[in-house]
Amino acid sequence: MSAVLVADSIGKSFSGRPVLRAATLRAFTGSVGYLVGRNGCGKSTLLRVISGELTADHGVVTYDGVPRTPPRWHQLAREGFYYLPDRDLLAPDWTPRRHLATITRQFRLPGYEHAAAKCAVTPFLDRPCEALSTGERRRVEVATALARQPRCLLADEPYRNLDPPDRLVIAGALRAMAAAGCAVVVTGHEIEDLFDTADYLVWCTDRTTYELGSPRAALMDWRFVREYLGPVRAAQLAQNRIEPTATQG
Length: 249
Prior knowledge:
By secondary structure, the protein is of the alpha/beta class. It has helices spanning 43-51, 73-78, 96-106, 113-118, 134-148, 164-179, 191-195, 215-218, 222-229, 231-240, and strands at residues 3-14, 17-28, 32-36, 58-63, 66-68, 81-84, 152-155, 183-188, 200-205, 208-213. The strands form two sheets. The chain has a six-stranded mixed β-sheet with strand order 6-7-8-3-9-10, with helices on both faces. A four-stranded antiparallel β-sheet has the order 2-1-4-5, with helices on one face. Helix 3 runs parallel beside helix 5 and helix 5 packs parallel to helix 6. It is globular and about 50 Å long. Mean pLDDT is 92; it is low at 242-249.
């Protein structure tokens, strides 16, 4: 599988304090990657740099084989890039139907019914977004990404503060996007759930990143187990989780 997006040796500081020194992230066509790390390690910063929301101090982002210096969100969007940040994106007085219809009309796509059904938002398509629960709003946000039919999706903390049923729906949508050829990368802390979803893991720590490979391979990385998972949690994951069949190429 090919990497549609590569962020290489990204560095970023705020007020002289380095958050990232040499972080690298690749998004592979047809795969779901999971960027994991503790709070404040720089995961969101890395995604914001890749999307063009922040400017890196150094490093380069390559999309579809072309270096972007710096990347521009609106330009990448025209080329099939979609970024879901860890904040509310929905207009409170709009309905999910209006959001989805706007996406499909703007990009001249055939429709949003499949995306609405896959993310289980059809029953409340005409309810104002301000009246939806946290899980319902998150599912609508993922539905907009699914309706867009992107070539690459970066989703920052899509599982945050969600109940297991909502996480299961979103995981299914992410896998469906990967099955359609999208390169998906998500961040988060719900590693038990994401071990069932991810094809490969990237660990963000010490202001850099480490590509760990498949979930099974990550469980064999002694430093990742010792410093992030803990041996008890790693043993439980190894016993109870089954590695996805698709793997990084």
